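Q: Convert this sequence to structure tokens.
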Amino acid sequence: MIVVELVFTDDPRRLAARPAHRARLTELRAAGVLVLAGPWADDSGALLLFDCDEPALAEILAADPYYRTPGVSIRVRREYSPLWTLTS
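A:
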């Protein structure tokens, strides 16, 4: 699994790009690639957890322009090894 943490600014282009991004996240969730995603309570950023390897994540990030939208930056991108999950 890989954790991606995003940081947001007040740039309005971020909000304009968000609906298409969320539609893509819904597709990834249905495909079993996205485990969880959502913004911090203060909307300063978001946390996403992907169940894939690094090459697949690179493709996911490249295919979604949201990650390159002004007002959005990737702060953390690192492997995560849970001890257990709700399904295990």
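The helical segments are 12-30, 54-63.
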